[in-house]
Amino acid sequence: MENSNNVTIWAKDFNLGSSDNCTGELKYSFTQNVADSFKTYTCADIPNGKTDTVEVTLYVTDKAGNFDLCKTQIILQDNKNVCPDQVVGGTSMIAGAIRLANQNGAGQVPVSILDQNNLELTQRNTSDDGKYEFALISNAKDYMIKPILDKDPLAGVTTRDILMIQNIS
Q: Is 116 a residue whose pLDDT tops 70?
């Protein structure tokens, strides 16, 4: 974090000997989306330069789309004290929950927080009950919360819905 106040980790760096007896070609990611192969952590993820432990889920996917996963933890530390300390009592938080149509919490949804220049400050996954929270240390006045859930986009779409869409065109 010396110059950019962020650090990027790669899912493949956590591999300790995964193998595939068919294709031999494996992809490593933090979600079922194999393109989600890295995470960037910023000073916003380390409150007041202290150590913070973050749980991550790692996926190993073969060429046929078969996958397995495991959960592990990453310890984030500001060893070189490059992150500015927050004023005690002056920490602002943004928190919320992402819910599905049935009002159940949407767990493990990637949620980003962006500043007024659309620069991503940090990204986290929602907890299993769909909740997220961010401690704000940026001097930005406006923020945007950007959840991304692209699992099963046709869930709840019926044949009737498809016919109605086709009639509109």
A: yes
